[in-house]
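Sorry to interrupt, but I need a hand with the structure work. Could you add the entry underneath, on a fresh line?
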Amino acid sequence: MKVLVTARLGEAELRRRLAEQVGNQAIWVQDGDAMIPELPSADVLICPDNFYSAKLADAVRHYAPKLAFIQLLTAGFDHAKRQGVPAHVALCNAGEAYASAVAAHAIALLLALQRHIPTALANQARQAWDRAFTPQLTMPAASTVIVIGLGPIGHEIARILRAFGARVIGVTRRGLPDAAADEVVPASALRDVLPRADAIVIAAPYDETTRHLIGAPELAVCKKSAVLVNVARGGIVEPRALEAALRSGAIAGAGLDVTDPEPLPPNAPLWDAPNLIVTPHCAGASGAASGERLTDLVCANLARFMRGEKLQHVVTL
């Protein structure tokens, strides 16, 4: 059982646990070029999705006859989907490992926007006791929030929002009923429900069907008081359309943990758009707890693989 591994989050704990599980058969590498020579005898690959480059994917197809399982250390799997994974190789993502942290970050961005915290901080910086913004303050209670994507992260976001007293409309590919939301509609009906939203939170996977899912036509039908939060992938929101909507007041604000491109270049016009909060793709971080949750998930799934049992968090490309 040869396991190729590269990781940053929780690396020390994952090294310790894998050493207990498979001993010296856990081979750690620092980059894709170092991994490729190890592929011919590898059974398992453990890596973040962004590590799965076109070059590595090509090597997996041609030089990894034994490889049967790829465990991603990320919730997202857009690189794997774009580059492709051989049909005989099981692909799993990080499931709910990041759900609590990412959901908390999404709610933090939402509350900061609804409570105009950036405005208050700007006033504090100039030592001004200025209450002019207070008539615009809102809150989740008695509001309608659209959550796009009801995977583990979207579920946790919806749970917290409903605890705050919000009505949640879920948007998924097929629009099947889901206990996490008060109402669920298919992605094809997104533009129909956007006018009802006081806030939109994006937690959907990124692929060709969700690229620029939120663009100028969608932002145009939103309430001027609505705010947008994206903790999924930057490409789901068309950046020029978002910038224009913020500058024109078409929406009240946005909170982005992800951008397109990423990282956001220093000269990008979006940086100084009004009522915008940008965090550097850090929603999944929560200290040692994140690494421990991720390690638990990875090692449990590896144990299932070694026993020939059904894997969890299997991704269908």
Summary: The chain has two domains: 3-97+287-307, 99-278.
